[in-house]
Amino acid sequence: MSLGKRLVALREQQGLSREELAKRLNLSYWAIAKYETDERMPSPDILSRLADFFGVSIDYLVGRTDDPGRPANDSTTSNPSLPDWVKQLPPDMQQFVEEESKHGWPYLRLARGLKMQDLSKEELMAIVETWMDAKSRHEKEFGPSK
């Protein structure tokens, strides 16, 4: 089965229209349409976002396997370099923090500050959710950060 057919099937399983999926992933309707009709291949970053959104592996999306489950080593919880506070977060937030950690100082300042706090899981989730929202608003206004 092609990437496009898998995307259509996954989107329909969730009861979403192309427009709804596009909004949730901060993509255009036409980008989703081109992916679903196999006219265009998503970038690795977008493939990762699609896989995370649908809870499947990238290998499943691109047709390398018919098993939609994620391999055991695909979880960020297995990354020993992540601080303990990150491992308390849900997988989507762990993934976000891990990606942001590749961009340097903003993550390091936050990680250092949170390490010194005695915060509950809920407080950590609220902080990361605010961070995710702020980044999303920034990217909508100024475009994706490089």
Give the CA-CA distance, first to last residue: 33 Å
Annotation, overall tally of beta strands: 0
> What is the averaged pLDDT score?
79
Please report the number of helical segments: 9
- The geometry reads as elongated
Q: Which architecture of the largest domain would the CATH scheme give at its second level?
A: Orthogonal Bundle
Based on helices, strands and strand pairing, what is the structural class?
mainly alpha
Descriptive report:
62% of the residues lie in helices and 0% in strands. Residues 71-78 have low confidence and may be disordered. It has helices at residues 3-13, 18-25, 29-36, 44-54, 58-61, 84-87, 91-101, 105-115, 121-142. The protein is built from nine helices and no strands. It folds into two domains: 3-72, lambda repressor-like DNA-binding domains (434 Repressor (Amino-terminal Domain), Orthogonal Bundle), CATH 1.10.260.40; 75-142.
Structure summarized in a few sentences:
The protein is 62% helix and 0% strand. The chain is an all-alpha fold. It has 2 domains: 3-72, lambda repressor-like DNA-binding domains (434 Repressor (Amino-terminal Domain)); 75-142.
List the helices and strands and how they pair.
Blueprint: H1 3-13, H2 18-25, H3 29-36, H4 44-54, H5 58-61, H6 84-87, H7 91-101, H8 105-115, H9 121-142
Helix pairs in contact: 2-3
